[in-house]
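Proteins fold reproducibly. Look at a concrete instance:
___
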Amino acid sequence: MKKFWYLIVFVSVLLSCSDNNRSNKNPYIPSYTVNLSVDMNLPAYSNLKFVSNAVIVPNYGAKGIIIFNTGSGYNAFDAACPNQPITACTAMTIDGINAVCSCDKTAYSLFTGLGGKEYPLKQYRVEVTGTVIHVYN
């Protein structure tokens, strides 16, 4: 009987584990290698020290990288519209806590990456060491 309970606990733990990342498979956004570090002590990135602020770092990913302070950490998303062909739209713009697509005006939450369309924002991994934010895939 004890072995049965151990098996149930083991299976429960195994099923509750996840890699905490949503799938980044999106037919509209190519998979570019991203390896970016920004220092929040620099004036261009100092707004990231405060909750609910975001910046767009151009020339990385498909259309730039949006870095957002969630209050409990940082999110990084590609600035390309996730539900439009890459050549159809310019980079997304930041409107408060949302990123807005220039083609269809869809707003995507910078907390979750969701926007009510088929594909969410393409998300990248983030590590913070002191005042340096490292974004990579």
About this structure: DSSP finds one helix and nine strands in the chain.
